Amino acid sequence: MSRLSACALVLLVIGMPAHALAQEPAAPASPMISAVKGTFGMVKGYILKSAEKVAEADYAFKPTPEVRSFGQMFGHIANANFMICSRAAGEKSPSAENFEQKTAKADLVKALADSFAYCDGVFGRLTDASGAEMVDFFGGKQPKLAVLAFNNAHNFEHYGNLVTYLRLKGMVPPSSERGGM
Where are the beta strands (DSSP E) in 25-175? Predict the structure, then answer.
């Protein structure tokens, strides 16, 4: 192989990945829903990993007496997911339980998983057009997508609480683990 041919081959091989990266992926059918759902997937993963990581005995841990325990925090998140996502769907919540009163790790991990699965279903039924439909939310009208974005903010707010709890117990939060972000 001549030196010129070898250089051309190297340039071709090097250029191929750059060309592949330069091509834009096909846009999702509902890019706004997809973006908010992507953020939801991130926080969902962090919270579920946190719930699994915490030992059963630590579910009663409270940094101070005035705040929620790990278990109460996980229960609160599950309650809120069902409530907020049902509002975005314009339907009654499928859960009447108050998970904040549960204490067993298995019950709370299941409640979280069920609440996140319910929200995933709500996202799955929306398009950008239906996400713009207005629903009642906290005394006013909001687009369905805005309600789901509020749920993301609420979940991240409480994930921030969980990060502090985890650090106080000597654990690394999922978002800080290698490959967490």
Answer: 134-137, 140-143
